[in-house]
């Protein structure tokens, strides 16, 4: 295990206890069923970029599922049929070009060290996406999170939805959907504010997003 991998493992074991992980898994099951599944077909190949504890990729229904992360704990968290690639986001050499129908990334881009790393990651994402594929991104929107962004020691790259849109366009993507305010900022257990029924209601009432949403959601495709 490299020093980077060891640090990631230590950080996330400290940040999320078993109660947090169970709550996150239940939350992502609802999010996938009620919202994200509309962009993903059962026949698709889906890649979770910065998969972490694999809540999304374990919950989403797809023909083939891949998880990319540097944290070695991702292998233990992944469902048995999820292919885990412990590799950098800007160098996914184990994944063929034009092989992925949907790349999904949640709460990952803010951990990249600088805009150059983001652009390199977007270039590699574009490489692995099949023609007509989609990139789905959810991450904190600094415009609404404000100083809370820095509550996490590994947050480095603050972006607004406008900044992310610009980066995507510069990387050769066409942006189809921009939701500046989507989910609340954090789902850590000590901030739990709603049971499953309330989350389902929240997803059905976008007006609530304008009040509580602090994470953006953006959908883009490689430009032809």
List the main descriptive attributes of the protein structure presented here.
single chain, 224 residues, alpha/beta, Rossmann fold, seven-stranded mixed β-sheet, 9 helices, 22% strand, globular
CATH class category name: Alpha Beta
Give the name of the CATH superfamily: Vaccinia Virus protein VP39
- Rounded to the nearest angstrom, the radius of gyration is 16 Å
Helix content: 25-40%
Strand coverage percent: 15-25%
Can you walk through the features of this model?
The chain has helices spanning 3-15, 18-34, 55-59, 73-77, 115-128, 142-145, 161-170, 196-204, 206-212; strands at 45-49, 64-69, 82-86, 100-106, 129-140, 173-179, 215-222. Helices cover 38% and strands 22% of the residues. The mean pLDDT is 91. The protein has nine helices and seven strands, in the order H-H-E-H-E-H-E-E-H-E-H-H-E-H-H-E. Helix 2 (18-34) packs parallel to helix 8 (196-204). The protein has 224 residues and is α/β, with parallel strands linked by helices. It has one domain (3-222): 3-Layer(aba) Sandwich (Rossmann fold). It is globular and about 40 Å long. Helix 4 (73-77) links the parallel strand 2 (64-69) and strand 3. Strands 3-2-1-4-5-7-6 form a seven-stranded mixed beta sheet. The N and C termini lie far apart (40 Å).
Topology overview:
Blueprint lengths: L2 H13 L2 H17 L10 E5 L5 H5 L4 E6 L3 H5 L4 E5 L13 E7 L8 H14 E12 L1 H4 L15 H10 L2 E7 L16 H9 L1 H7 L2 E8 L2
Helix pairs in contact: 2-8
């Amino acid at each position: 295990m490299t020093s980077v991998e060891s640090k990631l493992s230590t950080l996330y074991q400290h940040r999320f206890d078993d109660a947090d992980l169970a709550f996150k898994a239940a939350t992502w099951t609802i999010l996938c069923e009620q919202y994200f599944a509309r962009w993903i077909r059962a026949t698709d190949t889906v890649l979770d970029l910065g998969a972490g504890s694999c809540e999304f990729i374990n919950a989403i229904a797809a023909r083939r599922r891949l998880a990319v992360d540097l944290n070695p704990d991702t292998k233990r968290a992944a469902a048995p049929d999820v292919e885990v690639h412990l590799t950098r986001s800007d160098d996914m050499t184990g994944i063929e070009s034009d092989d992925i129908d949907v790349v999904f990334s949640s709460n990952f881009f803010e951990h990249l060290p600088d805009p150059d790393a983001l652009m390199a990651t977007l270039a590699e994402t574009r490489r692995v996406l099949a023609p007509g594929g989609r990139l789905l991104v959810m991450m904190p929107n600094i415009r609404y999170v404000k100083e809370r962004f820095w509550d996490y020691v590994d947050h480095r790259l603050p972006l607004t939805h406008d900044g992310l849109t610009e980066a995507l366009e510069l990387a050769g993507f066409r942006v189809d959907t921009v939701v500046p305010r989507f989910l609340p900022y954090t789902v850590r257990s000590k901030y739990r504010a709603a049971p499953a029924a309330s989350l389902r209601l929240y997803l059905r009432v976008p007006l609530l997003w304008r009040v509580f949403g602090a994470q953006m959601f953006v959908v883009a495709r490689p430009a032809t």
